[in-house]
Amino acid sequence: MPDAASRPITFPAGFTWGTATAAYQIEGAVSAEGRGPSIWDTFSHSAGRTRNGDTGDIATGHYRRLEEDLDLLAELGAPGYRFSIAWPRIQPTGKGPVNVEGLDFYRRLVGGLRQRGIAPVATLYHWDLPQPLEDAGGWSERDTAERFAEYAALAAEALGDDVALWITLNEPWCSAWAGYGEGSHAPGDRNLGRASAATHHLLLAHGLAVPAIRAASPASAVGITLNLTPITPATDHPADKAAASRADGNQNRLFLDPLFKGAYPEDVLDHYAGLSPGFSVVRPGDLEVIGAAIDFLGVNFYSPQTVVARGRAEEARRAGFNVGPPRPNPIAEDLDSLAVLTPARPVTQMGWEVAPDGLAELLVRIRHDYSALPIYITENGAATEDYVDPDGRVHDPERISYIEAHLRAVHRAIEAGVDVRGYFVWSLLDNFEWAQGYARRFGLVWVDFPSGERIRKESFAWYQQVVARNGL
Ligand code: FCB
Question: Using CA positions, which residue lies closest to atom 10 of ligand 1?
Answer without folding.
Answer: 433
